[in-house]
Amino acid sequence: MWKNDRPTTEILHNPIRTYWWWEYQWPMDAALPTDWTEKTRRSYTPADSDREMEYCTYRHESGDLRVKVAPASLDGDDHPGYALTTTSYPGLEFAETTQVRTVLTFDRCERIARRFMDLFSARYDGPGSLEDALEYASERTRDHQ
């Protein structure tokens, strides 16, 4: 069963690469709801740090909502970690950006973003329901301590 400290069976075969049991993680697109697309994904290292930071945005197929996972400092917060923000009607003059939640790690923030997108998709039923779906998903992904 073991060959060169690796099992002979795979956990997951992805067309891009094979994940072994000790490095297993869900592929990032596996949990993305069908009515959402990833628009941006970047990794960078700020000039004043050696830590690599990540950033990604998702857009709903209607074009009415954008979800962003980015370092909290990009939005002017003095909070460490990553912020989940939403922008309704992005690109229009009446666009509204709201911070949903801030957490310490990118992976956790992205998991929360995917939960948000699932909840939003379950409630969204066309342009007239945007605010209700946004409130529904935001309320259920906020930190309730």
Protein architecture, described:
This protein is of the alpha+beta class. It has one domain: Rossmann fold (3-Layer(aba) Sandwich), CATH 3.40.50. 21% of the residues lie in helices and 32% in strands. It contains 2 helices and 9 strands, in the order βββββββββαα. The protein has a 5-stranded antiparallel sheet, with helices on one face. It has a two-stranded antiparallel ribbon with strand order 1-2. The chain is globular and about 45 Å long. Mean pLDDT is 80; it is low at 18-27.
pLDDT average, as an integer? 80
- Overall structural class, as computed from helix and strand content, comes to alpha+beta
The percent range for helix content is 10-25%
Give the DSSP E fraction (strand runs of 2 or more residues). 25-35%
User: Which H/E pattern describes the elements?
Assistant: EEEEEEEEEHH
